[in-house]
Amino acid sequence: MTERELQFTPPAAHVARLRALAIVGAAILAAGMYWAPQRAWANLLLAGYYFLGIALAGTLFVAFQYVTGASWSVALRRIPEAFASLVPIGGAAILAVVLFRPSLYAWTADASLTGFRKLWLSLPFFRARALLFLALWTLFSFLLLSASRRQDSDGDFRHTHSNARISGAFLVVFAITFWLASYDWVMSLEPDWWSTIFGMYNFAGLFSSGLAAIAVVLVYLRERTSLRHIINEDHLRDLGKLVFAFSTFWMYLWFSQYMLIWYANIPEETVYYVQRQHGLWAPLFLLNVVLNWVIPFFALMPRVNKGKPGFLLRVSLVLLVGRWLDLYLMIAPPFAGTKPSLGLWELGGAALLVGGFGLAAMAALRRRPLAPTRDPFFVDSLHYHA
Predict the structure, then answer these.
(1) Residue 290's CB: how many other CB atoms inside 10 A?
(2) In Å, what is the CA distance from 352 to each residue of 25, 102, 105, 348?
(3) From CA 326, how far away is CA 372, in angstroms rounded?
(4) Is the dihedral of CA 326, 327, 331, 335 positive or negative?
(5) How far is residue 358 from each of residues 19, 84, 86, 184, measured CA to CA in Å?
(6) How far apart are CA 238 and CA 79, in angstroms?
(7) 184, 130 Cβ separation under 8 angstroms
(8) Separation of alpha carbons 202 and 213, rounded Å
(9) What is the pLDDT of residues 255-285, one digit of tens each?
């Protein structure tokens, strides 16, 4: 199969719909920054953190495959690579919040902070950390993609070895930096509450939703492009296994955090869940578990379901909605009060997220052939059977 046959041209109608979504969402949030600034900026934080999470999940997926020497995923690697190229865009949304709306974080106006908390939650250090984290993630994504592009030209196996080394370093750096970033950007919205498992919990949600996004795009491309001759049912089944596994991993961490706080019953810790389990928050609290684990677990438990494109697509879409709800429950309560605010500003943030990510992902996928045909493991991946 030639590279020309593997070029992707997105349908004009789909591009137009995504562009309309992005424009409408951006216009709503822009208006919200005047009429309801706290909610609008909180929704920009949610959209940016979600966007960045899927982009980082793409880099992580690629890194895991190189480190483990996996060949099965080579045929679908262009999708997570496209996601990885979007790290700077997601990072820009986070930086907009950090630089232009630090008042979103209550601790910026708290003069009572002392000791290490005063040092860590100082605005200059907070901004410097954000810049450092985003610069490191962008650098590693760039290095991985650059070596992959060079291999497209010469097919040299050395690029695979190089990316394996880069991936190992990235995984170590990511583990530390994302753990700290999740504390900075999300947990510190409520600076009097803390959880030592919060970073791992955020990683589980990030990677689970990233795998779901890869599955959605893979099924979309398989139905509309020459990838249908490359991606077989076994590729889909193994991707479905990962979606199933990390959804369950998310549930394990969700339960671990909740159970330990519930059992200890320490007021400084339970305050986080008290608000989220009362009033109109309670149905959303339960729905979060249903969307992120109950539905994916029972739907993907049968082996045959994991390899069905339409079935995997629907379950992955449920997980992506669940990820939005999970982040909403982390970010919105400090600003919404006793009842959730699900209205125009939240709709605008969601529209900007879907439209913006869809447009950026399609643009990234257009730049290179949909399969790395000169990768030394491509033939193995092409004839892969689970």
Answers:
(1) 13
(2) 4, 21, 23, 6
(3) 34
(4) negative
(5) 9, 14, 11, 27
(6) 15
(7) yes
(8) 16
(9) 999 999 999 999 989 999 999 999 999 999 9
